[in-house]
Here is the input.
Amino acid sequence: MGYKLKWSEYVLLAVIFAVIYSWILVDQFVLPEYMRPFAFFMIALVSLIFFFFIVKPEQQNSLAGFLSIVLGSVAGVTIILQHMIVKFDVSYKAFIILAGAVVTPFIAGGVYSVYKILLPYGGKVCPWWHAYTFDNKLRLLVQNPEKIVGPYIKQGDTVADIGCGLGFFSIAMANMVGQEGKVIAVDLQEKMLEGLYRRAVKSNVENRIEIHRCSQNSLDLSINQEVDFVLASYSVHEVPDKRKLFEEVSKILKTGGKFLVSEPLGHVSKKDLDEYVEFAREFNLKSLEAVKVFYSKTLLFEKN
Ligand SMILES: C[S@@+](CC[C@H](N)C(=O)[O-])C[C@H]1O[C@@H](n2cnc3c(N)ncnc32)[C@H](O)[C@@H]1O
Here is the structure.
C-alpha cells in the first residue's frame, strides 16, 4: 500500500493543512478554552488519514517532519498576527499552540507506525479485513473476471491465482475451468485462504480449488505443476522478491501459457512495471498486449 508523493503534492498537502490549521487557530480565540484539545485532535486525525491512505511508508517520516514545520510556522505567524490585530496577549497559550502544531503530525505518524507494527507482516501485505473493501459484489461492476481472465482460460485448464486473497478471481476462474479443471489458490495469509474456502463452499466449487499457503519469499509450489494460466492480481507489489516470483511462475507455466499481472493504480510506478518486464524477459516470458482493467495497470506475458 502507499502512494509516492511528488513534490507538488507535498506543497498541496502543506497548503491544505495550513488552511485547516489556521482556521482552527483563529477559532481558538473564539471557541471556549476546553475546545483547544479538540482542535489538536482534529489535525492529528487529518494527518492520520493522510498517513494511512496515501503516503508510502518510506515517506511518512519526512511528511510528518514537513507538516510539523508548516504547522509550526502557521501557528507562529497566526499568533503574531493575532497579537498585532486583536492585541492578543502572547503568553503560555502561544507556546502550547506552537508545541501542539509541531508535535501533532509526529504523534499521528507515531500512532500510525505502531498500528502498522501490529498488522500482519509489518503492514507490508494487505490485511485480511481490508480485503473486504475491494473483494465484494460492487467490484463486479467495474472489474468483470469474464472479461479480464476469460480470454485466457478454457474448460479443463489448470490455473493459478497468486496472492488470491479472498478469492475474487479464484472463484470466478473455478467456474471457468469447469468440473475437470483446477484452480491453485496461493496466498501467504491463512485468514485469506479461510475466507476463500468459505466462499468456494458457498459457490459449490470447493472441489476445483486447491488451496496452497506459501511463504513470503517463495510460492513453494512443486515445479511439476503444469499450469495453463497464472494470474497475479494486486499482489506482485506486496511480494518482497519479485524476481524470484517471476522465476517461480515461469517454472510452473506450460509453454504457450499466459501470465497476467494486474496492479492497482498508485501502487506501482512506470519504473516498477519496467522491472517486472525485465524479470519476465529473464525467465523466458514474452510481453504481449494486455487487456485494460479499470483502476489498474496490467501486463501480459507468454511462456516461450
Ligand atoms: C491486495 S490483495 C489482492 C487479492 C486478490 N488477488 C484480489 O485481486 O482481490 C494481495 C494479496 O496478496 C497476498 N500476498 C502478499 N504477499 C504475498 C506473497 N509474498 N506471496 C503470496 N501472496 C502474497 C496477500 O496476502 C493478499 O491476499
Remarks:
- Residues 125-126, 131, 134-135, 163-165, 168-169, 186-189, 192, 214, 216, 233-235, 238-239 surround S-adenosylmethionine (CB under 6 Å).
- The mean pLDDT is 85.
- The chain has two domains: 7-118, 131-303.
- The first helix runs from residue 7 to 28.
